[in-house]
Design a protein that fits this description.
heterodimer; A: 580 residues; Beta-Lactamase; Heat Shock Protein 90; five-stranded mixed beta sheet; 17 strands; disordered N terminus; disordered C terminus; B: 205 residues; alpha+beta; Chemotaxis protein chec; 6 helices; 29% strand
């Protein structure tokens, strides 16, 4: 009968049976021989063959049947068990209150014990240890046995479900693992999408920022080529081109810094440095921009907090970035204050401005890479949004911390940097030379050391660089010899006896390293001891080390700053303090 | 056949007494405080059952079904909606992570809980009526309400009544709602109501 439920008990699935089955129907009502045989077979099956534990008791709960399966799994022989009270044989049943189930059975109720709630009825070792359960997990059914409406005993059937439970747990673990994978995959995808969006925004910003100065450069150079500029405009053109190239160079330097920081290749060249010098140098370089906006720059620098252990260039970059940021976001007539003080074993540099401030929402992201509070195309403030990220990374590398505080939009911002004062070694000889920092105005040649009477040999395979360096050096009064290759340079060295060598490193045929090693192999009368500076776009610390080891005295990173070039040449010639 | 107010109150009270014992048994078993909310009782003709239960179980219904026989005979069922069934087993078995399906162990637990609950209810009837009732082995089924109703109302020729007991398990700040449905023949229900009346009279007298 489809849909009809079985009303059967354990031994029969006869759907038409109107009443629940009673065990004694099988056990006791046999009349015919055939049925007797069948009953004998059932008893044999129960006792010897069943793959479940089968236990029957009388109404006093004395054991009547204890089948082979029970003997095998409990180690108790039927002969030792039969006739004894179940609860005396297994006092644990009473302790675990499972005796209640037998009482219910004697009242005519069927009781099920699930492994999940009870674990087991009678403790037995698990058949196979491979599932890691020391005890057999059991599903148990305790039913009454009745005869003519009178309950005469109980029937207990015990099933080993250890393997099934283990399989379920395994399946559950698989499902969880799968959903965990699914979740982590989803998170990774979200993260990737977010990064991608940031990258897109960044690319949009960078192309805008790089194109802007380029437009000015292209535009003005085109006008110059056409020769339509009068002297006044010519000066303006050159000034504009210079300023824009400078700003682009800064953008690229920022990008390179970031990529170095990302790839973990940024190394500090730490020495004892004078923070006051560094801060003053940074302020000097920012002053023209601040003056142009009528921003007052105030400093309160405590000389006691001056010396720390760090990388002078990077520290200056930190201060310079903070100052640039402050100038950028401070309106006309505003104020920027820089303080330096000692706090316990740390020094604190604080840059406070009266600028546009930072909203609470953006505050946590100030130091994130490529983040700008206003990423819209109509934003007022240019830049890549890398400066502050670089600041944080560099401060981290110094073992310090940087924090920002702002009362909100329009209320100014305060950036504080804490740097540890560690291992400061006072050594006058190591007093740090501070680069003149990138400045927004054209460097004036006034105030630079004179190169009068010096003969400088410049080696570079790129015509533009050669011309530029030659021009700068000539401007400062030196005589310049130009070589296009290492071979040419060696000839010029012997024939013209230059005082100083400036050489590019990456050149076809023979590079700068080969050149300097050949020169250093020469006797001093043939120029073997000529003071030399290397010129290179490889600006990493390890490059610098290699340069110095190979025989150069100085390392000048490209793009070359004119003032730095002149200063280096003068210092190579021992003229650093002579003024023209 | 409708229950009077007094009959319904008396029946609710009787079942409530049985449930209190059952709640205590479940608490002991699981180590969590299990409360069964005071039952609400109603009587329907089996033909009306569908409408009475449809709102509660729109999807699959988990039922623990036991047939009982003796001077009073019929079908006893505990009905839970699928989500409720999963939640109940999770709550009872201390599963840390909520699952969303019923594995074999969960079915075993449900069957055991249904067995305890149905036995408490039917045992109470047996005691009340002073008759001995025997039970079939409980079975767990997952099916739609229509399939379930079709399987308990096979004998269309006889009028059957269903005693519907609405209750809720309160476990660990969660509540799982369920129904106990006891399908009885007219005779059996008559006899039950008479005994309930007698009990009620005895209580108030």
């Amino acid at each position: 009968m489809p849909g009809r439920r079985s009303r059967a008990g354990e031994f029969c699935d006869d759907a038409n049976h109107a009443k629940p089955l009673r065990a004694e129907t099988i056990l006791m009502s046999a009349t015919s021989t055939k049925q007797t045989l069948l009953n004998a077979a059932v008893l044999h099956w129960m006792h010897d063959l069943a793959a479940q534990g089968i236990v029957t008791t009388d109404s006093d709960l004395n054991v009547v049947e204890w089948n082979h399966w029970m003997e095998e799994h409990t180690g108790k022989r039927a002969s030792d068990v039969i006739g004894n009270n179940l609860f005396e044989l297994f006092p644990e049943l009473t302790e675990r209150r499972l005796d209640q189930n037998y009482k219910s059975a004697l009242e005519g109720q069927i009781r099920l014990l699930s492994q999940a709630l009870h674990g087991y009825l009678i403790a037995m070792p698990a058949v196979s240890g491979e599932y890691g359960y020391p005890q057999m997990l059991q599903a148990v059914r305790i039913s009454p046995l009745s005869h003519e409406g009178r309950i005469i005993g109980t029937l207990t059937i015990i099933e080993d479900v250890t393997e099934r439970v283990a399989r379920e747990a395994e399946l559950q673990a698989q499902i969880e693992e799968r959903s965990r994978l699914l979740l982590s995959e989803k998170l990774a995808r979200n993260e990737a999408e977010r990064a991608n969006r940031l990258k897109d925004e960044f690319l949009a910003t960078i192309s805008h920022e790089l194109r802007n100065p380029l437009n000015a450069i292209l535009g003005w150079t085109h006008m110059m080529q056409l020769g339509k500029l009068n002297d006044a405009n010519m000066e303006r053109a050159v000034e504009t081109i210079y300023r824009n190239a400078k700003s682009q160079s800064q953008l690229i330097a920022d990008l390179l810094d970031v990529s170095r920081i990302i790839s973990g290749k940024l190394r500090l060249e730490a020495r004892t440095v004078d923070l006051i010098n560094i801060i003053n140098a940074a302020i000097d370089s920012i002053r023209p921009a601040a003056d142009a906006k009528g921003i007052r720059l105030q400093t309160m620098l405590d000389p006691a907090a001056s010396s720390i252990w760090g990388d002078a260039d990077r520290l200056q970059q930190i201060v310079w970035n903070l100052l640039t940021n402050a100038v950028k976001f401070t309106p006309q007539g505003g104020r920027i204050q820089v303080t330096l003080q000692c706090i316990d074993s740390q020094v604190e540099i604080v840059v406070t401005d009266s600028g546009v401030g930072i909203s609470k929402e953006f505050l946590p992201y100030v130091f994130d890479r490529f983040r700008q509070a206003d990423a819209s195309t109509t934003r007022k403030h240019g830049g890549l949004g890398l400066g502050l990220s670089i600041v944080r990374q560099l401060v981290d590398l110094h073992g310090g911390s940087v924090s920002v505080h702002s009362e909100g939009e329009g209320k100014g911002a305060t950036f504080s940097i804490l740097l540890p004062v560690v291992g400061v070694i006072s050594n006058e000889n190591e007093a740090e030379y501070v680069h003149s920092a990138p400045a927004d105005a054209i460097i004036s040649f006034e105030g630079l050391p004179s190169l009068q009477g010096l003969k400088v040999l410049v080696v570079d395979d790129e015509a533009d660089t050669r011309e530029l360096i030659g021009e700068v050096l000539r401007e400062c009064g030196s005589e310049v010899i130009i070589s296009r290759s290492a071979a040419e340079a060696l000839v010029a060295l012997e024939e013209q006896k230059p005082d100083i060598l400036i050489s590019d490193l990456a050149m076809p045929d023979e590079d700068g390293y080969t050149l300097i090693s050949k020169i250093r192999a020469l006797p001093s009368e043939r120029g073997g001891q000529i003071p030399a500076a290397a010129l290179t776009a490889y600006a990493r610390a390890e490059d610098r080390m290699r340069v110095l080891r190979s025989g150069f005295q100085f390392h000048l990173p490209k793009p070359v700053d004119s003032a730095e070039l002149v200063t280096v040449v003068a210092s190579l010639a021992g003229r650093a303090y002579e003024r023209s | 056949m409708k229950l009077t107010e007094r009959q319904r109150d008396a029946l609710s009270e009787l079942i409530n007494i049985a449930f209190a014992r059952t709640g205590a048994a479940l608490s002991d078993l699981t180590g969590h405080r299990v409360l069964l909310s005071p039952p609400a009782v109603a009587v329907y003709q089996t033909g009306e059952l569908r409408d009475a239960l449809a709102k509660f179980v729109p999807g699959d219904v988990a039922s623990i079904h036991q047939v009982f026989a003796g001077p009073v005979a019929g079908d006893a069922l505990l009905l839970l909606n699928y989500e409720g069934a999963v939640m109940l087993t999770d709550l009872l078995t201390d599963e840390h992570k909520p699952s969303n399906y019923l594995d074999e162990s969960a079915r075993e637990v449900l069957t055991e809980v249904g067995n305890i609950l149905l036995n408490a209810c039917l045992g109470m009837f047996g005691n009340l009526l002073k008759v001995h009732v025997t039970f079939s082995v409980p079975r767990l089924h997952l099916e739609t309400l229509d399939e379930l109703l079709a399987s308990i109302t096979t004998d269309k020729t006889k009028l059957h009544y269903a005693l519907v007991v609405y209750t809720a398990f309160q476990i660990r700040d969660s509540s799982v709602k369920g129904f106990l449905v006891i399908v009885l023949s007219v005779d059996s229900l008559d006899r039950l109501i008479q005994e309930v009346d007698a009990w009620e009279a005895q209580q108030s007298g």
